[in-house]
Design brief:
Elements: E1 5-6, E2 9-10, H1 27-54, H2 57-63, H3 65-87, E3 93-94, H4 106-136, H5 139-156, H6 160-188, H7 193-206, H8 211-231, H9 234-254, H10 263-266, H11 269-291, E4 304-305
Antiparallel strand pairs: 1-2, 3-4
Helix pairs in contact: 1-3, 1-6, 3-6, 4-8, 4-9, 4-11, 6-7, 6-8, 6-9, 7-8, 8-9
Length: about 300
């Protein structure tokens, strides 16, 4: 839906994506968004502190993130909306969500995206495993890991519905808005696509604020960045994020009986090697499918939104 302008002001159409279309951040803007995101995290920490005074600790541990997590993105979203509103008076914008599917239908790419996600998860298992082994071999890093793991475990120890809502619904929506919809979309208009994808993946890794989630986020961010570059579809990257995180939530419940979170340690080595080879092949095939989608402009398949004044 393309917004209509009257007397230089945008009509409120309740479209979250459109309301941020005229803010196209570069590197400076990326760090501005990061700053507002960190401020949101501080605001969230204050809210948790207040909750702790009035609410039992167990309830705070299990449910406070349902309020705090969206709140951490609120300052960045308000900032982007204000910048977009100002820019809409004199600059063209670029849609956050597009549907450039080439010779494929949307549901075709949705299925390919699901396979791509599981293939990426499988291939990333080895780098994640060695990242964990190397970093936790350092005493102070092991202490940091135990602290982070305790916090994450508290979030996951609540009811399945709250963990799933937080990790598999909220995270894909808010993080994809920030990392692909705002950061990558902006960088694609200002630098070569390969560097835009890499920088946005690094940004995605950075906001996780710990090296164990960061490496996995970087690898997944490269894949999501390429999908966004070829299709312009924020919904497809949200789907990747949803499948990855939703699977992680379910496996966390199941793996409570396991001593490890890594597939390489969960199954016999011949089985793992076979699945790893299948994952590599599936990853290559899925990326070739997206490669077949033609690019309509150098910045990728992201449509511009022109100013329209009645």
């Amino acid at each position: 839906m393309v917004p209509v302008f009257k007397k230089g002001r945008k009509v409120n159409n309740y479209d979250l994506f459109a309301n941020h279309a005229w803010y196209v951040p570069g590197i400076k803007g990326m760090f501005a968004l990061l700053g507002w995101f960190l401020l949101g995290n501080l605001l969230g920490a204050l809210v948790v502190a207040v909750f702790t005074v009035f609410v039992p600790k167990e309830i705070v541990n299990h449910y406070s993130e349902l309020i705090v997590y969206p709140l951490s993105f609120l300052p960045a979203m308000v900032y982007a909306a204000q910048k977009s509103r100002k820019n809409s008076l004199f600059e063209p914008g670029y849609k956050l969500n597009n549907s450039h599917f080439g010779p494929f239908k949307g549901w075709h790419l949705a299925l390919v995206t699901i396979v791509l996600t599981y293939a990426t998860m499988m291939v990333a298992d080895i780098p994640n495993y060695w990242n964990f082994k190397l970093t936790t071999s350092i005493p102070w890093m092991k202490t940091f890991y135990d602290l982070i793991n305790e916090v994450l475990q508290q979030m996951m120890d609540g009811p399945l519905w709250s963990s799933f809502l937080l990790v598999a619904i909220f995270a894909p929506v808010f993080e994809e808005w920030l990392c692909r919809g705002m950061v990558l979309r902006g960088l694609l208009t200002r630098m070569k696509p390969v560097w835009a994808i890499v920088v946005s993946a690094l940004f995605f890794a950075l906001i996780h604020m710990n090296p164990w989630q960061a490496l996995n986020a970087f690898l997944l961010g490269l894949v999501m960045g390429y999908v966004y570059y070829k299709t312009g579809s924020l919904l497809l990257t949200m789907l990747i994020h949803f499948v990855n995180n939703g699977t992680a939530v379910i496996l966390t419940q199941v793996s409570s009986l396991q001593e490890t979170d890594f597939w390489v340690e969960m199954m016999p080595m011949p089985v793992f090697i076979g699945l790893y080879v299948v994952g590599l092949l599936a990853l290559a095939v899925c990326l070739m499918v997206f490669r077949r989608i033609p690019l309509e402009q150098e910045r990728g398949n992201i449509d511009s939104v022109e100013l329209s004044i009645d």
